[in-house]
Amino acid sequence: MRIRLTAQFWAWIVVIFALIIGVGVVNLDADGWWYDEWWSLYNAGATLFGDALSPAQILTRVATEDPAQMPGYPLVLAAWGNAVGWTELAGRALSLLAGLLAAAVTCRFALAITRHDALTALCATAVMAGSAWFLYFTHELRAFSLVTLCAVTLLYGYWRIAQRPHLGWGAYIIVAGAGSALIYLHPFALALYATVGVWHIARLFTRGGRAGWIRASAALAFPALALIPWLPVLLGGTAAIRDVERARLDAAGLFALVAVGGYVFSSTVTPLFGLFAAFSLRARGARLAWALALVLIGLLLGAYGFARVSEIRYSIAIVPLLALIGGMGVAALHRRGIPAPLLLALWIAPALIVDGDPRFGQVMQNTYPQPNREMARILRPYLSERAAVIVYVGTGLRPEQQQTVLVQYLERVDMALIDMESAGSIPAFANRVHAAVEGRDYAWMLYSPLFEGREYALTDYLLRERDFFRCRTLVSDPRMEITAYGRLNRDAPAFRYALVGDTALSIHGIGTPERVGDRALVWLGFSGDAPAGQYSFGLHLTDANGNLIAQHDEGLPAPGDACRLFDLPISGLPQGAYMLRLIVYDWRTGTRWNGTAPDGTTGDSLPLAVFTLP
After folding, report:
1. Among candidates 580, 584, 561, which has minimal Cα distance to 522?
2. pLDDT of residue 245 exceeding 80
3. 78 Cβ partners below 8 Å, 6+ apart?
4. Which residues is 505 bridged to in the sheet?
5. How many other β-carbons are positioned within 10 Å of the β-carbon of residue 467?
């Protein structure tokens, strides 16, 4: 039967797809890779790690190095990445494309199961597009958008052959292909495949359900047969996960998983989805949608309990069914006088609000990362090989997951990742902090306030124990803090000034000034009792003829010990030698104070370092 759809229907479809594309495109390059995405790239043989891999090599890598995963996504990603590139944006575009196709097939499935009810189909598609759960994974370099696509394709394909058993072999090939692709994408996708199997068996007990049953059995058996070569790897990977026991799930824990699923699918407005679900019960096709969803929920909970994990994202195959139920409810409410556009606006708005919200992301995936790429982008222009890098790992993070990606972005393998959980005790924690700065004059500490930092102040205290003082904070916001520390050696030669009365000031060069990229970095330590707000100092960069090229002036730190980091721009300067001079003065009068350099030189403009630009 030909379905007649109006221009208004297609106009709304365009709006819904524009929403998916808009959110996806904005987020494709909004953040850096995180640990699981790094493994996606590695398993796919991304050229970031060397030469491209053949399909056989990809299968071997996944089987031997990441057996808890299925090889389907790495194979697809390899073909995609080798064609379009391996940047964050290019790689994630595959997930956006899969998400768009999943929404399209969901619309077609809704039309079919409701006997061509265009309103319900539109509402179901909009409910799916307005779910933060679905939208999030349209810009993740993971298999979940492809899982959603294959799940709804299998559901729709099987519905077609169940309703019209005498369809050509094409429909049966779609079921066999979608089922095979689904179970090779993610182990938890087996629950959706098993749900369709339950549906298939149930047809034996329905009137007319046996027609074409043997052919459908063959189509559904094909994915199971295709899984046999990988079955030993799958069983081994599952056993390894069970041994780790990432979560202990009793009845309360399993119920909590259901609640979390509703929370993330509804973008935090679970009662609104409950309203939609309640009004869907009498809709055409609702019995089948509800039956499939309940069976799938039961199987998923069994899989969670068996594997001893609690990652709600593994359940994403249920999203098309939840969207179908939600769409039925919205259409039913619309027919009772509540406009569907209003209901859908109330549904979509929270998804747009929480999209990109780290707190929501932490609920949706237990291994939400700190902003590693953004940290690296800010730090790299200031980072030299002589500086230590300390990453304070907040509560809820696993150090190895952050280190893997930071090595990629910072191109440093000698970072110290400090956390209390793996240290086990305060003395061990302290030893790690002390070892991280042993033999160094300066260090950088990275921390993400997205994660509770119970020992962050302790880390700062332990650095002070080793005479490392805060020199400069590059950034401090709700997502990240990047702080420079310098070691103040009070016994080392220093620039000394005798100011008014008994006031004395010592300025210590920490390390030696160095060129990093297009700037000159100067670390200085300060000791003395110069009153705050009265004196300033300046760093003047001059050429061979004494001409001033660049300078930096600011007030002296408060009395006591302190550290400062300065950077002077030197890009574009011609070749030659440049002198960096130190000046201390009374900012109110401009009077310069005479000082004594470590080599005995005296004057009001003391040589600090020489830069030679090649």
Report:
1. 580
2. no
3. 44, 45, 46, 52, 53, 55, 58
4. 497, 528
5. 16
Show the tokens assigned to 319: 């999203």
Between helices 251-265 and 286-307, what is the axis angle to 10°?
130
Both tokens assigned to 514 = 């160095």
Helical segments of 266-318, H only: 270-280, 286-307
> For residues 65 and 467, what is the distance between their CA atoms, to the nearest angstrom?
43
Q: What confidence category does residue 1 fall into, taking pLDDT thresholds of 50, 70 and 90?
A: very low
Look at residue 528 in the predicted model and tell me its pLDDT.
Answer: 85
Residue position matching structure tokens 């979390």: 260
For 531-578, the three-class secondary structure string (H helix, E strand, C coil) is CCCCEEEEEEEECCCCCEEEEEEEECCCCEEEEEEEEEECCCCCCEEE
How far is 197 from 189, CA to CA, in rounded Å?
13
pLDDT greater than 80 at residue 3 = no
Q: Which residue has the tokens 């370099």?
A: 141
Angle ∠(60,61,64) on CA atoms, nearest 5 = 80
Q: At 547, give phi and psi (nearest 5°).
A: -75, 135
Residue 112 — φ and ψ, nearest 5°? -70, -50
Q: What length is written for the chain?
A: 614
Residues near 314 by beta carbon (within 8 Å), at least 6 away in sequence: 186, 188, 300, 303, 304
Pairing of the two strands 560-569 and 595-596: unpaired
Task: Look up tokens 């401090």; give the residue.
Answer: 476
pLDDT of residue 4: 62
Band (347; pLDDT cuts 50, 70, 90): very high
Query: In angstroms, what CA-CA distances link 52 with 35, 93, 550?
Result: 20, 20, 47
Nearest of 140, 100, 135 to residue 349 by alpha carbon:
135
Helix or strand holding residue 435 (H, E): helix 426-437
